[in-house]
Design brief:
By secondary structure, this protein is mostly helical. It is built from twelve helices and no strands. Helix content is about 80%, strand content about 0%.
Length: about 290
């Protein structure tokens, strides 16, 4: 890992601690007692989004490797940054964290199965892909579970301090995340940057943007209109569907599958998805807060 990757991990852990410090243990009890939003969110992330990606990839004017790369983005569900958006706009943060914790374990099976399926469908071949289980579980524990639990305990035993630092932490975490993303996108590859060209960005942008917006908007209305969830829950689910874990997607495509072109859709997706997801979430949460 490069220095920027270690810095990103540290920032994500700080963000998860801040998220945890804004919650109570009772918030999670409510999520698991009234589980329809949780099950629907998992279905939209793990099944609906990959189907949307496959349909778009099948008709897109991309190379076979880039088509597979698009599928890989869709099968790497959102991580801490999607939870951060729910935290920023005061959506259902407990639901967001619960979805991230569960799908982070489900991907141990879904990513190998669906990535091999994508290679067979678009490249006419087969590849052995498997996530390192112990390493993946440790990353989930290190970045999500431990900091969130520490934040929950901090809020339980020091509620006054947790309340006072809530806004400063939002500002600091937003600035830190912005700085890390800028370095990640624009630094050279030797410094841990993406190394993608402007021509590649322009060519891949329409397809990645279509997948992002269509899945995010459709998931919002499915939750709101078909399943009659609240506006806050519907927005939370759309955030989790809209913002994928591009760091994991790059790891799967580049490190596990050893295919640089497959990483390009994830790099382009990462350049806009945080900001478009934040904008969509901000608009819907203001319209439908109930």
């Amino acid at each position: 890992m490069s220095f920027i990757d270690y810095l990103l991990s540290a920032v994500l852990m700080l963000i998860t601690f801040a998220i945890g410090s804004s919650l109570r243990f009772a918030d999670f009890e409510n999520i698991f007692r009234k589980s329809k939003p949780l099950y629907l969110g998992l279905f939209l992330q793990m099944v609906f989004l990959p189907i949307c990606a496959f349909i778009i990839a099948a008709v897109a004017n991309l190379s076979p490797a880039e088509k597979v790369g698009l599928i890989i983005v869709a099968i790497c569900p959102g991580g801490t940054t999607s939870n951060f958006i729910s935290y920023l706009i005061k959506a259902d943060t407990a639901l967001a964290v619960a979805l991230t914790s569960i799908n982070s374990l489900l991907i141990l099976v879904s990513i190998p199965v669906l990535s091999n399926w994508a290679v067979a469908a678009f490249m006419g071949g087969h590849t052995e892909v498997s996530l390192p289980i112990l390493n993946t579980v440790w990353e989930v524990t290190k970045i999500v579970i431990i900091p969130a639990t520490l934040g929950l305990l901090f809020n339980r035993y020091f509620p006054n301090i947790a309340h006072r630092i809530k806004f400063p932490l939002k500002v600091i975490n937003t600035l830190l995340l912005g700085v890390v993303f800028l370095i990640k996108f624009f630094a050279g590859e030797e410094s841990g940057g993406s190394g993608i060209s402007v021509d590649e960005i322009i060519r891949l942008l329409p397809t990645t943007l279509l997948m992002h917006l269509s899945s995010m908007i459709l998931s919002y209305f499915i939750a709101l209109k078909l399943f009659k969830l609240s506006g806050i829950q519907s927005t939370t689910i759309s955030i989790e569907v809209g913002l994928q874990n591009t760091v994991l997607a790059i790891f799967v495509a580049g490190t596990l599958m050893h295919n640089a072109p497959m990483t390009k859709p994830a790099l382009v997706y990462a350049m806009f998805s945080f900001f478009t997801t934040l904008a969509f979430a901000f608009i819907t949460i203001r319209i439908r807060r109930d």
